[in-house]
Amino acid sequence: MNPRLRVGYISGQAKRVNERVIDTAWLRYLGQYVELIEIPPLSYIKLFGGTFEKWLQKFPESLDKLSANLKALQDKYRLDVFYANLTPSNPYIVMARNHGQLDLGILMIAHCVGSENWVRHWLAMAPFLTEKDVLLASTATTKRALECISDVYKGACQIPLCTDADGLLGSFNEDGEPIILSIGRIENVKNIDAALRCFADISARVPGARLVIAGEYTGRSEGQVRQYREQLEGLVQQYGLQDTVTFTGSIVGAEKEACFRSAALLLNLSTDPGETFGYNIVEAKRYGLPVVCTDWDGFRDIVRHGEDGFLADCFWEGDKPSIDEAQVADYCVQLLTDSGLRRRMHGASLLSMEQFHYRKVMPLVEEAVYHASERVVLYRKVDEVWNTPISEQGGLYCLDNLRGISFLDASPLSVLSEVNTIALEQWYGQVKPLIGHFASANKQFV
Question: Do the two domains 6-162+359-384 and 179-356 of this chain adopt the same fold?
C-alpha cells in the first residue's frame, strides 16, 4: 500500500450549485485515500500579496515572492501534492512552482476544455505542466480535446468523476407519472429551448406528460441571462405549456432527491463547448433513471445507447452544433409509453453505476498521484516562454489546430488576463478544430 500522501486544497465553496455538488463529494471520496490538508482561502490569497491584479502589475518581480510564499505554505502544511481547486489561479501557481524548482506535485481536474475561458486556461498551463503533475480528464473526448491544444496533455489521465453508489436510490415505479427531468445550468449552450420544443411534441403524444426544469440561470452577463429567460418564457407561451412545464430554480438535498425519484427519465440536450462529463447523467443512474441526451462529448462514455438510455444524433456541419429534435421526442415518447422498456433501462442504469463508484475510481487517482509525486523532473525556465506569443511556440502548441483562434498573438501569461469577448456563435467556429469530435455524427471528425 502506498504511504498516505498529504494533499492540500483550498477550503470553501464554489459559487455555482453544480460545482459545489461535484467538488464537495469528490473531496470527501479523495479523503478516504490520501490525507487531505485544508488550507484557508485567506492564507492562499496571501500568496499573491492580496489580489491577482496587483501581483500581475508587478510581474515578473512578483514571481520570486510568489514562489517563496508557495514554498513557505508547502513547508507549513508539509504538503506532497497541491490539489489546485481554485481554477483561475492555477497557471500562476504552476508557474511559481516551476520558477522556484519546488518538489511539489499539482493535482487538477479538467472540468472544462472548449469554452473560451478554459482554452485560455489550457494555453497558459501548457508550458509549465510536468510529469510530476496529475491532470484528470474524465472522458476520452475530453483528453483528445486537450491533446489538440498541446502534446503536453497526452500525459493526462483518463479517469472519470465518481459518486457513491452504495444504497442505490432507485426503485422502479411501474405506474409513475410521465415526468421528464432536466437539471443543471440554464443557459443557451444547454439548449433548454430545444428541450421545450421537443416537449411540445411529446406532450401532444403523451397525455399527462410534464417537464421539470431544475437549475439556475447562468451566462456571461446579466443581459444574456435575461435574454435567454425571456426566450424560454416566450416558448412556454407559444406552445401553451404553462400548466405542464415547471421551472424550480436551484434544488439541493431532499428537494433534488424528490425530483429524481418522481421522474420517468432525464433529458440533457447540451452542446456546451465546455461540456466534459455530464455529472447529472451519473446522478440519474443512482436512481435507475433512463437518459435521453445528445450524442455529445463525454455523454457517450456514460450512456450506452439502447441499454440504459438513448443518444440523440448531434451534427456539426455548419457554424454550430445542431440536434435531431424529432429523434429526441421519439426517444422520450418510447420511454414514457413503454413501461417494459423503462424497467429494462432502469436495471441497466443501476448496474452501470459500478464503473463510477468512488471505490473503483479513487484508487486510480491515488495511484496516479503517488507515482507522479515520486518523479524528479527538470522544470522549464519560466522566462523562456512566459512572454513569447503562443503563435511563435510551434514546438509546444499544436498550431495547426489553433490557427483560427483569435488571441494566439498573446503570450501564455497575457492570454489569462484578457477579457472573454468572443460571442458564442463566433467561438464555435474558432474552437471547432479542437472539439469538433464532440459531435459524433459529424463524420469528418469520427
Answer: yes
For 6-162+359-384, the fitting CATH number among 3.30.499.10, 3.40.50.150, 3.40.30.10, 3.40.50.2000 is 3.40.50.2000
Residues 412, 384 contacting (CB under 8 angstroms): no
- Is the Cα torsion angle 422, 194, 221, 87 positive or negative in sign? negative
2: confidence class by pLDDT, cuts 50, 70, 90: low
CATH superfamily of 179-356: Glycogen Phosphorylase B; (3.40.50.2000)
3-state secondary structure 38-63: EECHHHHHHHHCCCHHHHHHCCCHHH
pTM of the model: 0.92
Beta bridge partners of 439: 296
CA atoms within 13 Å, Cβ hemisphere of 137: 22
Cell output for 82 = 497541491
pLDDT over 70 at 14, yes or no: no
Which range is least confidently modeled, 161-175, 180-194, 271-285, 316-330? Answer: 161-175
Place of cell 461535484: 22
Domain spans of the chain, in order of start: 6-162+359-384, 179-356
Please give the torsion angle defined by the CA atoms of residues 290, 294, 295 and 296, in that order, rounded to the nearest 10 degrees.
-120
Helices (runs of H) and strands (runs of E) counted in the chain: 18, 14
Does the pLDDT at position 271 exceed 60? yes
Element (H, E) at 400: helix 399-402
The DSSP call for residue 354 is G
Residue of 115, 83, 78, 35 lying closest to 438 (CA atoms): 115
